[in-house]
Structures are given as C-alpha cells and as structure tokens.
Design a protein that fits this description.
Layout (H helix, E strand, L loop, with lengths): L4 E5 L3 H13 L3 E5 L2 H10 L4 E5 L7 H10 L6 E5 L4 H9 L4 E4 L4 H17 L24 H13 L6 E4 L6 H10 L8 E5 L5 H9 E2 L11 E2 L1 H4 L4 E5 L6 H13 L1 E3 L6 E3 L3 E6 L3 H6 L5 H10 L1 H10 L1
Parallel strand pairs: 1-2, 1-3, 3-4, 4-5, 6-13, 7-10, 10-13
Antiparallel strand pairs: 8-9, 11-12
Helix pairs in contact: 4-6, 6-13
C-alpha cells in the first residue's frame, strides 16, 4: 500500500528535519521545502495528500501561498503552522480554506492527529465547505486576545461560519464576550457593511419588544402614534444580535420561530406579511434545556438554532 504523502513548507531547517524524521517513522512519504516557490512546485510534482505550511516564509506570505494553493484545489488539505498566533491570521487562514491551524512550538502528536483528520476528511468528501475571502480586505477592529487551545478553536470556528447565513446560538456566562463574538462574525462576513443591531431582550418587555423587533402600525397599541420600522427591517441584509434570547415572552417566541423558518413577519397591528433576509445571532447565559423543561422557552425554537448550527453551538457552549 502506498504511503500517504506529506509536504512540509517551512524556512526552519531544524524543524523540517525533526518533522521529516517523525512523520517518516510514522509511515508517511515526506518531502520538504524551505520557501514558498519550492513548496508550490513540489505541490504539483509531488502531489501530496497533506501540506503543512508555515505562515511566515522568506519569499511569500503563507496566506498568499494558501491563496495560490486554492487556485490549484489543494487548500482544504493544508495545515497552517506559525509562531505568531493571533485571531485575525487564524480566521483568514480558515476562510481561505486551510483545514487546521497549529501554533508553534509544534506538538508532533497534535500535528499527526491533524494530518489524520485531513486524510479522513479527504476520503469522505471532496466538497469544499468554506468560502473564499480576499485577505487584503479591511475589517472592523474588533478582536479577541488569546493563545490557548480553546481560543484557537473559537477563532477557527469564527473563520468557518462568519460567512454562513444560518442562525447562530452562543451560550456562555455573563461577561464571557458573547456579543463580541457575534460582532466579529458579522464584520468578517460579506455583509459586513450592512448594519449590526444588538437588542437586550431582558431590557424590553412584552408588546414593546415585539414592536422593537418587528415594528408596529400607527394605533397598534396605546402610545403608538405613528408607524415604526422594526429592527428586522432596519438591519437590511445585516445581523440582528438577540442577547438573552430566553427572556423573549413565550408568545413572541412563536413569531420569532416563524421568521427563522420562513423569513416572514408582520408589523404589530398589521395583517400584511413582510420579508427580511437579516441574519440572527442569539445569545444566552441560561441553560436552554432547563428553560425548556421549565416551560420558559419553546422546544421548537431551540431545535432550529441547535440543529442548523450544531458545531458552532457546541464550540461556544464549551469555550465561552
């Protein structure tokens, strides 16, 4: 049986030597390159199943190499490595299609685990599940600082899903940065120039919250002296952040569910159906399963959030 081929592109000869020795002993067919030019050439001639790529190279930035690998259809087989671990670089690498991002000093066991995951992923499907974005674009300077393994997983997840328009649920204790994560997801998406509107659902009660979300017609309730546009209309193609979503009144949760499923809503006091393509990011510091068992949160509203974005939900529940 032919050994799986691994190409390592890094400008540190000692690292290349040690990784070459380790992976060869594990049964891989390994080739190495000290710069981007040689690495790109070997990506064609050697045709590796996995590419291990340093982010800092003498002749080209690693993200530019990744961009070139994308043109050649090899980006999803790439594992990025770097001594400079930060949020922006991680997100950009994942957006450009890198399968994994590992900080230096390299844990060889973690690297081999990542290589096996790339090989498994390649054998299951050749479908690309990430979208290209130009790394030269400017973004809102929101940033999370952290170098732990848990933070790396959050950065990777943001990179994977920031351009996905499905509903996102973020769970975490008060003060863990749920709104910051929501803002970063929005400002790294293609709709970053559209509004990001945040609503604290526990600060506005009953009819006023429904009016805030969906708007109301003149005379819909006492004090409604004119027609008001709701946040779902004002956000356009942007993002609505619903903080403390479990505080939404039970009857209003049904209307939110209909919007999530059909992208339809009605102004309070109006029979006319309106549509919006706003993306919803919800957050809570409450255990939703417990809230459901207590009759405070609709089970059918919980499942669309959970099932549409299960991976992101699990990451943020674990790490936030």
């Amino acid at each position: 049986m032919q050994n799986e081929k691994v190409l390592i592109i890094d400008d540190e000869p000692s690292l290349l030597e040690s990784l070459n020795m380790f992976l060869t002993e594990r049964g891989y067919d390994v080739q190495c390159a000290l710069d981007a030019c040689d690495g790109l050439n070997k990506s064609d001639t050697f045709d590796p199943e996995v590419i291990v790529l340093d982010i800092r190279l003498p002749d080209m930035d690693g993200l530019e190499v990744l961009k070139e690998l994308k043109k050649r259809g090899k980006e999803s087989n790439t594992i990025m490595i770097t001594a400079f671990h930060d949020m922006e670089t991680t997100i950009q690498a994942i957006k450009l299609g890198a399968h994994e991002y590992i900080p230096k000093p390299i844990d060889v066991e973690e690297l081999e685990k990542a290589i096996k995951e790339v090989l498994r992923h390649s054998s299951l499907s050749s479908t690309k599940n990430v979208l290209y974005i130009d790394p030269s674009r400017e973004y809102e300077k929101e940033e999370i600082i952290g170098k732990s393994k848990a933070m790396k997983e959050i950065f990777k997840t943001i990179g994977l899903f920031s351009e996905n328009r499905v509903t996102i649920l973020i769970e975490g204790e008060t003060g863990t940065g749920k709104e910051l994560i929501a803002r970063i997801i929005h400002f790294h998406g293609l709709n970053k120039d559209e509004p990001f509107l945040a609503i604290n659902c526990c600060a506005i009660m009953g009819t006023l919250l429904e009016s805030e979300l969906f708007g109301h017609e003149k005379g819909a309730f006492t004090g409604a002296v004119s027609t008001k546009h709701g946040k779902f209309e004002l956000a356009g193609d942007g993002t609505i952040f619903l903080d403390e979503v479990t505080e939404i009144p039970f009857e209003l949760q049904a209307k939110l569910l209909r919007f999530l499923q059909e992208k339809e809503y009605k102004l309070l006091g109006s029979p006319k159906i309106k549509r919006a393509d706003v993306r919803v990011v919800a957050a809570t510091n409450t255990d939703l399963k417990q809230a459901i068992s207590m009759g405070k949160f609709r089970q059918d509203l919980f499942f669309p959030c959970y099932l549409c974005q299960n991976q992101l939900f699990m990451y943020f529940r674990k790490f936030c």
